[in-house]
Write a structure and sequence with these properties.
- There is one protein chain.
- Strands 2-1-5-4-3-8-9 form a seven-stranded mixed β-sheet. The chain has a two-stranded antiparallel sheet with strand order 6-7.
- The longest helix has 12 residues.
- It is α+β, with helices and mostly antiparallel strands.
- It is built from five helices and nine strands, in the order E-E-E-H-H-E-H-E-H-E-E-E-E-H.
- The protein has a single domain, classed as 3-Layer(aba) Sandwich (Glutaredoxin).
- The radius of gyration is 14 Å and the shape is globular.
Length: 156
Amino acid sequence: MAIQIGQQAPDFTLRDNEKNKVSLSEQKGKNVVLLFFPLAFTSTCTKELCYMRDNMAMYNNLDAQVYGISVDSLFSLNKFKQEQNLNFPLLSDFNKEASTAYDCLYESFFNDMRGVSKRASFVVDKEGIVRYSEVLENASDLPDFKAIEDTLNSLN
């Protein structure tokens, strides 16, 4: 079922690119931006995450913790983060639990790949409530960065 604005964000625990466990519930007290993306090293995903990297000062000023999430292994994500000099954690949803909970998983993707995260963005407020939700069907589309920023501004 699609995530609705105003609902409690589904909790998850995933490993980051440095093998540390990260739980959404442990982020209470912070605004959180969750960016699900299909696959590391692909053009649109690189463009999206580099946009976040290049604008991280603004997200920091908006008191937001940003996480990129994909079904890639934490090893692939670590290499991707290093190559792109990303300045926020990447979380491996290798078992597809978070992507399933956030209803952003392709049944069939490019070349008959199954179980790839859709490009999706969520803003979760300091109390763990979803304040913004966008799930894109077309993997070549970018999230509405302005809407994410406006949502974060409204929370501060």
